[in-house]
Amino acid sequence: MNIELAGVPVDNLTLEEALQNLEKFLAEKTPRLIVTPNPEMIVAAQKDQMLYEIIKQADLRLPDGISMVVVSRLLGKPLKERVTGIDFLLGACRVSARKGYRVFLLGSAPGVAEAAGRNLILQNPGLRIVGTYPGFFKPADDPQIIARIKQARPDILFAGLGAGRQEKWLAAHLNELRVPVSMGVGGSFDVIAGIKHRAPGWIQALYIEWLYRLVTEPHRLSRQLALPQFLYLTLIKKVI
Fold it and tell me: Which domain holds residue 85?
């Protein structure tokens, strides 16, 4: 079951249900794409037809934004909960450590994915990180990267290339890569590696994580402007 926010479909499910879908996809072994629509991505999809189509056709679309949950309640079609990309990644690694799934990390600055991988293994003994590759690459590097991933034979490919770019890259190469599950995770590697920090739990509970990010990362101002645009598209536009 899914709902639409500004015309963009989002799946209505819990983290646990999302992880159940992950295991189903892995058992089927058909290349699947998971995306994490948040207000910024939903706003971008209004003008980016390619991104919109990728989200629409994705096999799973996780509601990655507390404002999406709040808006869905106001619209009378409540989302069950917020399912962030990083929480899904961490949950997937817990499952992978138990079941022996192989994980590849693509993205972030040189050395970050490796550091994130080491921390994930510390948190999940037995987890198999079968490869990493930094995210600052050019289209000409694609054949080399694709060959590296195929050689590693991961069950799950997490790509931290930035919203929009990661979804387009994965969608373009999904069938060639033949990875059962691929997913864009934005800046999750930076957080897992300890380079950046998530907002404290109490800030998340107050629904002001956006403010924490703005204070700690002022350069995000232009990105945070997507939130009022999202509210306009989903709420205000409906009543004017």
Answer: 30-38+49-191
